[in-house]
Design goal:
By secondary structure, the chain is mainly alpha-helical. Helix content is 59%, strand content 0%. The model is unreliable at 1-53, 55-71, 81-95 and 526-538 (pLDDT under 50).
């Protein structure tokens, strides 16, 4: 059939400024032009070296990090449910029967009583009042307290070993200030609080120790620099030592959350020595019966595995953690399932060997339920993980097929929301790019072309290029093996050809050139005797296509 090619004689070469063409490589050359050589490098199994065999998609990572902020807190503020009732405070006597002092009175009393040992009760009342103001659920006066110059006093009170109650209240006040903005956290750090909090981890008062852990968690959660500062001050070991059978579960929750913050952030990531030291502790925590502890442990595992292969390997080396993460993929609790699935998804962005280790741990079976989960983000992350397995070697692609996931994936691509459809689209394009003949035939026979070509109308230029490239490879393979007419007809009947023709007018140079390449190479055959063939039945030969 002859198809017209409509191309503007004069085209603007302006391309999508955000387009970088592939996961780790640009499909555009330095002048913004489409490059066949660069395009070939965007697939795992075509000429890439071992260090580039696994794709990591920056846009996915950014989106997942945004979700993390909703699912796990960077910082926590210790608030009072009732300003006149502090059930978490050990001060349940007369000091809490009175309303908190106004800030001006607090400032005056702290100045007056700070160095007067005989006025500890008055000082305690002032510090307690400040802490209660900072513990208000709404609009705590963090800046007002900072501007009043009280932070250096609170830090000094951490050394008041003769008054554990004042130490506790000061630690709580500083914890809540450190839960604020980076600027507010910096005030606490600059006042010298971190070494003093670490010293408090040796206190005989359990409430004070817990508050110090909480404060250090907030500081470490402010960023990589703050995290490393807490570690450099000697905070890691005393925090890890709190993971023991004698630590009550409510306290251990805060310890686990703080440990997860000591592993958070990847620019730069925590030192490898820190990861090595924490892994045995995570092996204990991930088996804990408390859901919150397991949740934060899974997030900690996700932070470790969100990076280079050497970091992933430390988790993969732990059969306890890997086995437990796979078990947790069956968990009905989304707060646990989400970070467990994230961790597994991160592992399969590693090397083929690392991916195989988790496949051997029976990771494929849970995906049947994950792909039909009632929460769309979990469906999406499950498809994301499978797409990275499909970016592996042919044995790993076969694991997806042998598990019977292809029909479910195609059904998901037809019915789910766009973000999940796109991830499943990556599964199919990775199989087309890296699979063997029988594997490509499997997904074609299962009906992947229609939902895949439907995604050609999406607004993601990079992904449109990936789909076009997969279609191009598919047609090229079919031509070599004598099945071009059948595959070309399938592409045409599913509406793919119409969509490719429409892309000739696309503003992106790479998309436009790929669309023309496909039409010129595979859909320019002249009509036979002026008649069109309408024989569309039995397009798939017995035994499947041989690509």
């Amino acid at each position: 059939r002859v198809h017209s090619i409509t191309v503007q004689l004069t085209r603007s070469l302006t391309c999508d400024s955000s387009f970088n063409g592939t996961i780790n490589h640009s499909i555009m050359d330095s002048g913004g032009k489409y490059s066949q050589e660069n395009r070939s490098k965007s697939y795992k199994n075509t000429g890439k070296d071992k260090n580039e065999l696994r794709r990591r998609r920056n846009e996915t990572a950014v989106e997942l990090r945004k979700q993390k902020k909703d699912q796990q807190l960077l910082k926590k503020r210790n608030i009072d449910v009732d300003i006149l009732d502090d059930p978490t405070s050990p001060l349940r006597e007369k000091v809490n029967q009175l309303p908190p002092l106004p800030l001006d009175n607090i400032v005056g009393d702290i100045h007056r009583y700070a160095d007067a040992v005989e006025h500890r009760e008055g000082l305690l009342q002032a510090v307690n009042s400040a802490r209660r103001l900072l513990s208000r659920e709404r609009h705590p006066p963090l800046d007002e307290v900072i501007n009043a110059g009280l932070v250096p006093y609170f830090v000094a009170f951490l050394d008041y070993t003769d008054s554990p109650k004042i130490q506790f209240e000061a630690a709580w006040a500083l914890t809540n200030i450190a839960s604020g903005s980076s600027e507010q956290t910096a005030v606490v750090i600059d006042a010298g609080a971190v070494p003093k909090f670490i010293n408090l981890l040796q206190s005989d008062d359990a409430a004070t120790v817990e508050q110090a852990v909480w404060a250090l968690g907030n500081i470490a959660g402010d960023g990589a620099k703050c995290r490393d500062y807490v570690i450099s001050c000697g905070g890691l070991e005393p925090i890890l030592q709190l993971v023991n059978p004698h630590t009550p579960t409510p306290f251990l929750k805060n310890v686990t959350w703080t440990i997860s913050n000591l592993l958070r952030y990847k620019n730069p990531p925590p030192a490898e020595s820190v990861i090595i030291r924490i892994i045995p502790v995570l092996e204990q925590l991930i088996m804990h019966p408390d859901h919150e502890i397991v949740t934060d442990t899974c997030w900690a595992c996700s932070y470790i595995t969100d990076g280079e292969d050497y970091r992933i390997q430390h988790v993969v080396n732990s059969s306890v953690i890997i086995t437990r993460l796979v078990e947790l993929l069956h968990c009905a609790e989304p707060t646990i399932l989400t970070p467990a699935l994230r961790s597994v998804g991160n592992v399969v962005t590693g090397s083929d060997e690392q991916t195989q280790q988790i496949i051997d741990s029976k990771v494929m079976a849970p995906f049947h339920q994950l792909l039909i989960h009632n929460r769309a983000p979990i469906q999406k992350e499950a498809a994301w993980a499978i797409s990275n397995i499909a970016a592996g070697n042919t044995t790993q692609i076969q694991a997806i097929i042998d598990e019977g996931l292809i029909p479910l994936l195609i059904s998901t691509m037809r019915k789910s929301e766009y973000k999940t459809q796109k991830e499943v689209g990556w599964v199919m394009t990775n199989i087309i790019s890296g699979g063997i003949e029988s594997q490509i035939s499997c997904i074609i026979e299962a009906g992947c072309l229609t939902p895949l070509c439907d995604l050609l109308v999406c607004n993601d230029v990079k992904f449109v290029v990936v789909i076009l490239d997969a279609v191009n490879k598919l047609l090229a393979g079919a031509r070599k093996r004598g099945y071009l007419d059948e595959i070309a007809t399938l592409v045409e009947e599913c509406g793919g050809l119409d969509k490719v023709e429409n892309l000739q007018e696309h503003e992106n140079d790479g998309v436009y050139k790929l669309a023309i390449e496909i039409i010129e190479n595979y859909f320019m055959a002249e009509e036979d005797d002026g008649e069109e063939s309408n024989a569309t039945a039995d397009l798939v030969p017995s035994g499947g296509f041989k690509f």
